[in-house]
Amino acid sequence: MALGTLYLIPCPISDATPADAVLPAGNRAAVDSLDYFIVEDERSARRFLSRYGVSKPIDSMTFVRLDEHTQPGAEVERMVEPLLHGRSAGVISEAGCPAVADPGQLVVEACHRHGIRVVPLVGPSSILMAVMASGLGGQTFAFNGYVPVREPDRSRTLKRLESRALAERQPQAVIEAPYRNVKFMEQILKTCAPTTRLCVATDVTSPNEYIRTASVGEWRKAGIPDINKRPTIFIIGR
């Protein structure tokens, strides 16, 4: 029996953005072919599929949860088992592209070990879009995911990222839990030098999208924008 295929299905970053505004028409055929989904959150996955207008009844589909609490091993192997018997699956994150700063990576890694084909579909990546719009240079950049929450580890990490951005001309992108955005930006402005530049990219692709790059000194004068509880990419650069 042929193996199934694992499709990595991007979805709009914002619920206010229509799916067809950021997803190519070609994705629809792949999604319509599936009835098995590995998802970060079932409610948001169902909502996305409903808004996407999939052809199959959503209640006839199978959803299994893969989130930050999922551990590698038997649980992930059970998710992959149907693909070993020819059933294809789709991975859906809560927003944007799955398997990047996202627990979907676990099932992707398992599929590669089993020789299962992995197909990434085209869709919005707030990380790349923020780099594109930052003006900080795209020849080389680094995405660092989350930085430590507690001090002094957080300040040390920010100083290290700033040093790399300045010395290597390599912008350093980081993220934070949206409810901690304000405190995190306060820490960036406290830790980094006034001449260091910072891009703040919030709600990328949504009607309320906000993207601005300025020096830390300029940000200190302007104040922190409305980023509380809004998905945001921070990029430290030269």
Order of helices and strands: EHHEHEHEHEHEHEHEEHE
Q: How confident overall, as mean pLDDT?
A: 95
Task: Give the class-level CATH name of the largest domain.
Answer: Alpha Beta
Give the DSSP E fraction (strand runs of 2 or more residues).
15-25%
Subunit organisation of the chains:
single chain
Major sheet details: 5 strands, parallel
Instruction: Give the low-confidence spans.
Output: none
Query: What is the count of DSSP helices, taking H or I runs of 4+ residues?
Result: 9
Helix content: 25-40%
What does this protein structure show overall?
The structure is a single chain. With 238 residues, the protein is of the alpha/beta class. It folds into two domains: 5-120, Cobalt-precorrin-4 Transmethylase, domain 1; 126-237, Tetrapyrrole methylase, C-terminal domain (Methyltransferase, Cobalt-precorrin-4 Transmethylase, Domain 2). It has nine helices and ten strands. The chain has a five-stranded parallel beta sheet with strand order 3-2-4-1-5, with helices on both faces. Strands 6-7-10-8-9 form a five-stranded mixed beta sheet. Helix 7 links the parallel strand 6 and strand 7. Helix 4 packs across helix 5 (105-113). The chain is elongated and about 60 Å long. The model has no long low-confidence stretch (mean pLDDT 95).
Give me the secondary-structure topology.
Blueprint: E1 5-9, H1 19-22, H2 26-32, E2 36-39, H3 42-52, E3 62-65, H4 74-84, E4 89-92, H5 105-113, E5 117-120, H6 126-134, E6 142-146, H7 153-168, E7 172-175, H8 181-191, E8 197-202, E9 210-215, H9 216-222, E10 232-237
Parallel strand pairs: 1-4, 1-5, 2-3, 2-4, 6-7
Antiparallel strand pairs: 7-10, 8-9, 8-10
